[in-house]
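tool_log.txt
---
The assistant was asked to compare two proteins side by side. It first ran the structure predictor on the initial sequence, then on the second. Raw inputs and outputs are pasted verbatim so the downstream comparison step can read them without reformatting.
(1)
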Amino acid sequence: MLGSSLVEVYKEIGMTLSEPDLRAKMEADMRAIAEGSKDCKDVLRQQLESMRELFVTAVSKKKEIEGFFEQRF
């Protein structure tokens, strides 16, 4: 129930954490590193920046997230 609630709240506040394209991008980057067409440090930097942006969004929407879970649980 918690997992499905997280997916619902992510969608409700416009976050892409549960979207398959996020994982697909990371997998493509890992493939590119293995093939030698991307540098692992560049990929790490890009992934961290992407996660940082999502974290900032989550923090800025803290009240909405709390309200969602207060209604659910």
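(2)
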Amino acid sequence: MTATLGVEDLARLLGLKPEVVEGWLAEGWVRPAREGAAWRFDEMDVARARLIAEMLRDLAVPPDSVSMMLSLLDQAHGMRRQLRQLLEALAEQPPEVCRSVLRRARLIERE
């Protein structure tokens, strides 16, 4: 999917009423871009909305727990991104630096 979607498009895609998607916007569960007065959902927004729908419909997550779960997922993704950046920076270092860092990490793990 390369085109962005509006609220009605996303609701139709997920088999929901537009009011449900608007409720998710009000809760801050999905944060699409604005295009004038309209919301525009990109691929990441659609994936997040699918996840929310799955949590609510298939996993029976209580609505009052969705914010916390999304926050935890966002934190996990942020840590994953930081770890990837750290590993990329480490890969640019001389081999002896990499070995030293790995040795130290193993020692810390044992503590």
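---
observation on (2): The chain has one domain: 7-110. The two ends are 48 Å apart (CA to CA).
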